[in-house]
Structures are given as C-alpha cells and as structure tokens.
Amino acid sequence: MRTTKLIICIIALLFLLSGCHDKITDNSVVSQPVESKELDELYGIWALDNHTKYEFDGLGTGELILSNDNYYFTYEIKKEVLSIDFSSSKAKDSVYKFSINNNLLILDSQDNNKGKYTLKREDNN
Description:
By secondary structure, this protein is α+β, with helices and mostly antiparallel strands. The chain has 1 helix and 10 strands, in the order αββββββββββ.
C-alpha cells in the first residue's frame, strides 16, 4: 500500500515537471511562439512638422509625439477610415478619412477636429 502511494506520487511529480520544462530554462522564461500578425499600412512614424509626429505600431496602438509631451492611443482602421482613441483626456479622439500616397499620409478630419493634414513618413531605421 505504501509502495503504491509512493509510485503514484512519483508519477504525479514527473507529470507536473514534464509540463514545466518547455517554459523555464536556467531561471528564465523561454518565449513561446506568438501568432504573427501582418502590420497595417500605417506602421511607422509620420511627421506633421518638426514638433508633431504620430507613431503607429502597425497592430492598433500608437503614440502622438509632441515637443513637450506624448499621448498614447489605440487606433482602428475600417476601409479608408482611421479612428484614434487617446488614453488621455488631454488629447481629443479623432476620426479621419485617410489615404497614403508614396510616403505621404493624408488625414481628412471627419469630426469636430476639422481640417486636412499631410504627414510625411520618416525612415524606419
């Protein structure tokens, strides 16, 4: 009876340890394969001027980079419409009709932030 319990405990311990060897090696977490996603067409840094830049990660998050502050946002693309939702209330959420022509991003405001803006893609080096 005692031998049976010992064998069961050893089998359970081996089972638990076998599930851990993929994830931990030398006290560091080994990265698991991540489903690769295709980056959208906005990926990169786009400059409006010397003081205003938009950085898009190509997967739905970004950052408005100003000379004196930065504002993080999430964005969504539906056909030719770009919706930007800032995490800070200091920046206004915006909806733009957009197009890309060579290295130029044209944003045509579709909400209260009226205006048409042309941003130039910066090198992604």
